[in-house]
Amino acid sequence: MENPLEKLKSQKKLRSQLTMVGVGALYIYMVVATGEALWQNYRVNSDIAKLRAEIIELQDKGVQLRNLIAYRGTESFKEREARRKLGYKKPGEQVLAIPQPYSPDVESGQAKETTEEETRAKLNNFQKWIDYIFG
Fold this sequence. Notes:
Layout: H1 4-72, H2 75-86, E1 106-107, E2 110-111, H3 116-122, H4 125-134
């Protein structure tokens, strides 16, 4: 038979160990919950920063579009576009149309640059071998 005093001590020790396990589990839970809250706070703050940057960008774009709308509403823009697109002219003004010589290498006012591959493709086989051997 076990001594009642020792039985009480062992029960007390068991309670103490269970309390320590409970406190340890609670501590781990609090650390994990705090870590999750900090991570969520970081994500929310980074989303807020991205949205603020997007707001600034959209505001700048809005200002540019309002300026463009205001400019396109002016008489000088309308006159310039009518001259350019419709060929309008002021009374007493003479318009000259200068024809451009046709060149298949020129597209829409920009000269076409030939690449080294295109130049090589125009060479015959003998010339390609000479280039390959002598560098």
